[in-house]
Amino acid sequence: MSYDQPSMLKNIMSAWDPLRLDAYDFYLAQLCVTNPVTTVQNIYSRDGELILSAGDLITHKTLLSFESIALVAPLSHGVCIQRLMSNDDFLQHMVNTIRDTEFFQSLEERKYPLDSLRPVSDMLEQFPLVQQRLTVMEAQMNNLFQRTLSVGLWSIFIAQEMRLPIEETQLVFWAAITHDFGMMHIPPYILAKEEELTGEEWQTLQGHVEISCQVLRAIPEIPAELIIAIGEHHERCDGTGYPLGKVESEISLHGQILALADSMVGIYYNRFKPHGRRWREVIAVLELNRAAYLYRGCEIVSTMIFRSEIPLDNVVEGSEVPEFAERMLQQNTHLQQWFAELSSVLTGLGYTHGDRKLHSLQNVVLHIATTFKGSLLFKEDLRDSLQSIASQQGISVNKVVEDALLRQQEMSFHLHRLTHMLQVYTSSGDCKVPKIINQLKPAIVKISAYLQ
């Protein structure tokens, strides 16, 4: 799940102590190596001790001298970066993202001229703290920065397709550009971890939503609607999201657009791009999860992707299909057992407990069951089923295998997500009924083994 360059993260983690330093402050010090970062005012502790004087450089040495001192205000509010990202720099980054991405380039040529991006990009210099954080993100967490630009482009394209007023389009765009600022405060070792996160680590990662909101609340003149949208970018229309488990009627339109754009970029970057697959394949995942997202938005996205006329690639060639299907069959057994355990535990708790967060977890079970009802994933002999369907419908075995693989990957994603959510719930202390926790704790141990 790495959001950064491995060599840079290795350097950060070798010196960074999460008990002593905020991750973002360390990124400032890392940036100072190539782009000087200095204090613009005296920095004091809450006890009135002078920690740094105006004009001091923010280096690793100065940060490590902080120990666990609490500052009067965040360090980021009292520093200046010598070369901040300008409006033109930001616009050029967006242009580069479009030109380097086959799908965005196709959209730009057919529907969305580059000129439409200038009005929104010209707003950057109105918010110096946003400038600062984008400068740091681009230099120190470039992978996250590139993903953020993609979320921004998707958000503005969807808003334009929905014919939202320019003010709302700008709001959605800037919510997208700032929605993951909280990621820069998450311990780097969590972002770099490639094995499964623990329940505690998952809870820490989820905290990036509220941190992003806190960062934006401290910036004068940021609209409240923008902060609300940021707080909703992991909520889902069917109540299966976080942090509040909101349902469609409780989520703002801006939040639903941002959630859809962020999810698509996550799906593409995490599951498709590493394997050389294309944006068009995201449509199938959206189809499987329509209940979780803004329906109108899904329709718009599907239309936009089809409009790009990007072809699909084969994931598996003909001679590889039998062995490929055999591996899928083995994985299916694992997924079915995993789902059965989760379903048994969560549905066995009943639905009269009055705990909203627990209801959200139970909604995820229902979502998975509904989404994959009648799916090939539950066929006893996948190989025969694949070949039979292909011959009956007159399509290639390859295409049927690829569709089944996509569904399998999506189910695996949901089971991982639900298991982590259950871990977080049992360790959060938020359960309203103590006996439920007593029922869940031994089950969690058994279910967590499926993550291995």
Produce the secondary structure layout.
Layout: H1 6-15, H2 23-31, E1 37-39, E2 43-44, E3 50-52, H3 60-64, E4 79-81, H4 87-100, H5 102-110, H6 118-121, H7 128-140, H8 142-161, H9 166-178, H10 188-192, H11 199-206, H12 208-217, H13 224-231, H14 253-272, H15 282-288, H16 295-308, H17 321-347, H18 356-371, H19 382-393, H20 397-428, H21 434-448
Antiparallel strand pairs: 1-4, 2-3
Helix pairs in contact: 4-5, 5-16, 7-8, 8-9, 8-14, 9-13, 9-14, 11-20, 12-13, 13-14, 17-18, 17-20, 17-21, 18-20, 19-20, 20-21
Key descriptive features of the protein:
mainly alpha; two-stranded antiparallel ribbon; two-stranded antiparallel sheet; 4 strands; 2% strand
Task: Kindly describe this structure.
- The protein is mainly α and about 450 residues long.
- About 60% of the residues lie in helices and about 0% in strands.
- The chain is built from 21 helices and four strands.
- The chain has a two-stranded antiparallel sheet with strand order 1-4. Strands 2-3 form a two-stranded antiparallel ribbon.
- α17 packs antiparallel against α18.
- The longest helix is centred in the C-terminal third of the chain and has 32 residues.
